[in-house]
Design goal:
Length: about 300
């Protein structure tokens, strides 16, 4: 059985569907803090900090693979650092202990937030010293270290990707620094105007959710012998400024974008502009399918359909 924690979030919403399609509906269990209504998947309500309940779910269902997505994201983490540390580090420790006890395979995502302002911001390499300035980034570095420890010392098969900002239309994100890119699409369609919380020159690495889900499953399917890294693969597909995104959306929708940077600008300023992902490409054949043009067509078509 496969368990997805944080299943109701931006990635989980789409990953559960993809895993159901690949393995069959009866092989997937979704889990999150709150129980959803009319949810088309076996569901277990669980706070990841409740070790007893988390272990019970794994034991009772014979879980052999976990996609651990429960986390507090960057912007939310800066506002609530203690909760961010608890969920992202202590929560992960619970997941790792259970993975060790039941010899599970584990997918645990990291983030471009692990990089601090002192690394090369263009084409940020896989191997650089990680010195993030944000609480969220620090918890993600700790997460990579914990995963590597369990891989090296306890022989647990753990894999992970440093996701860039993810853009999707099935679920509106909240609490992340790259949320502006998704919100811009939603507000362009729904309101014809968007107030963007970073300035127009802010350029960050981004990826369409379809590519992120495909990468996740591709990495989990890769033979372990081909992997030179485990919990921390750099992954890239596109980088653009907020203004370039607004211009691309404007070629489909008449909308007005106003730039009013807030505290999230400071977080964005410490992150890479683009990412070198040559190891993901050579180790497990990663190749993105969506650029900004193709992604925008897909986003606009689907959001228009939802708003009809
Ligand atoms: N979305 C992105 O752009 C992005 C980029 C880089 C890395 N990531 C990483 O990917 C993972 C998933 O991100 P996401 O975008 O789906 O996040 P999200 O915030 O959309 O979803 C996280 C989910 O975790 C749940 N959660 C929070 N605290 C919990 C707890 N104590 N117990 C159980 N569940 C809890 C939330 O209810 C939510 O449904 C995270 O590790 C995140 O750091 C995401």
């Amino acid at each position: 059985m496969i368990l997805v924690t944080g299943a109701l979030g931006q990635i989980g919403t789409e990953l559960v569907l993809a895993l159901q399609e690949k393995h069959g509906k009866d092989k997937i269990i979704a889990s999150d803090l709150k129980e959803p209504e009319n949810y088309d998947c076996k569901f277990e309500k669980c706070d990841i900090l409740d070790n007893e309940n988390y272990e019970r779910i794994n034991k009772e269902n014979g879980v052999d693979t976990v996609y651990h997505l429960a986390a507090i994201l960057s912007a939310a983490g800066e506002k609530n650092p203690d909760l961010c540390y608890d969920v992202n580090v202590k929560g992960l420790e619970n997941v790792l202990k259970v993975a060790k006890k039941y010899n599970q395979r584990l997918f645990c995502p990291s983030s471009i937030a692990v990089f601090g302002p002192d690394v090369p911001r263009e084409n940020t390499p896989q191997n650089v010293e990680l010195n993030p300035k944000t609480v969220y980034g620090k918890t993600k570095v700790k997460g990579e270290e914990l995963c590597d420890l369990y891989f090296n010392e306890h022989n647990i098969d753990i894999r992970g990707i440093r996701y860039p900002g993810l853009i999707s239309w099935k679920h509106k994100p909240s609490g992340g620094t790259t949320d502006y890119a998704v919100e811009m699409y939603f507000d362009a369609i729904e309101k014809g105007e968007y107030v963007c919380f970073v300035n127009e020159d802010t350029r960050l690495p981004m990826m369409f959710m379809d590519d992120a889900i495909r990468a996740t499953i591709q990495l989990m399917d890769a033979p372990i012998e081909s992997l030179n890294y485990h919990s921390n693969y750099n992954l890239s597909s596109m980088s653009f400024s907020a203004k370039e995104l607004a211009d691309e959306i404007s070629s489909h929708v008449d909308f007005n974008c106003i730039y009013k940077p807030d505290y999230r600008q400071d977080i964005a300023n410490t992150w890479p502009i683009s990412i070198d992902d040559k190891d993901a490409r050579s180790d497990w054949g990663w190749e993105p399918k969506f650029d900004i043009t193709k992604m925008t067509e897909e986003m606009i078509t689907n959001l228009r359909r939802l708003n009809e």
